[in-house]
Amino acid sequence: MSRILPLVAVQAPPRLIGGALTDFAAEVSKAVADHPGTQLVVFPELHLFGDGEPDRQRSEALQESAQLLDGPRVTGLKEIAADFGIWLIPGSVCERGNDGRLFNTALVLSPSGELAGHYRKIFPWRPFEPYDPGARFSTVDLDGIGRVGLNICYDAWFPEVTRQLAWMGAEVIVNVVKTTTADRAQELILARANAIVNQVFMVSVNCAGPTGRGESLIVDPEGAVIASAPGMEATILAAELDLAAVERVRQQGTAGLNRMWSQFRPGEPAIELPVYRGQIDPATWTPRMPTP
Question: Residue ranges per domain, the chain?
């Protein structure tokens, strides 16, 4: 069965902290109007929380702007998703936890205007970010299409994150990014490597200049680049992802050869992983693919 996900990744400069959601709604409107039939729109990390202040003042501003997930900001984002009838990942937001902690949290809003899922960044970019680490991996089922996994920027540097999401059945992993530094070159390699070793689509959307380095890209389950932004300029990447390719690549092998998710034979012993105080158990190695 063909399961096509038309999406756009918006490489745009971040908005100022506390900016009006009406301006963001206009960005969403343009993306949808320019690409009819789009079902998922993705923005970069902290798109609604731009720079423009020294580090100390910016940290204070982020603390002051943080809201609960049931606060007015998320309510407004729900309305935007419902108005356009799309799945919306507005980047990530500054979330105030019920216990007062500050999280960098990616959101998924549904076409019906519900908060379909959220993910708190597990690996904040230390020592540069003021956020507390999250503790839960997150996938979201897009009804009738497929399963999306969420991670944020520096998470991509930890292969365990993408592997966990793939094992949870994610067919597309969306990595929202706000990279302003020279390591974007390495992130491009990581996006392709994470796609290859997990046989998933990777969507890495970075903010545009002058704040960010841009160079957003979309990668298929064999590591081929489907769409890319060659520079820092604001742009929109559009692609139609055939999610059936994930199962096809896993069955036939990357380059027609490598089937990492079919590595083990029945009854083989578990492989100990001392660094994690755990193990890879062949009996539970197969990813939890979503039910069509």
Answer: 4-266
How high is the mean pLDDT in each 10-residue block of the chain (292 residues)? 88 82 95 96 93 56 88 97 98 93 96 98 91 96 95 97 97 97 97 98 96 96 97 96 96 96 94 89 86 68
Phi, psi of 65 (to 5 degrees): -90, -10
**DSSP single-letter state for residue 208:** P
Is it true that domain 4-266 has CATH number 3.60.110.10?
Answer: yes
Give φ, ψ of 140 to 5 degrees: -135, 130
- Residue 45 annotated in active site: yes
Query: Among this protein's residues, is 153 annotated catalytic?
Result: yes
| Per annotation, catalytic residue among 27, 45, 95, 215 | 45
With a CB cutoff of 8 Å and minimum separation 6, the contacts of 44 are 10, 11, 12, 14, 91, 176, 177, 178, 205, 206, 207, 212, 216
Report phi then psi at 264, rounded to 5: -95, 150
- The active-site residue, picked from 153, 171, 178, 215, is 153
SS3 percent helix, strand, coil of the chain, rounded to 5, is 30, 25, 45
Q: Which of 78, 95, 121, 129 is catalytic?
A: 121
Which residue do the tokens 């960010």 mark? 212
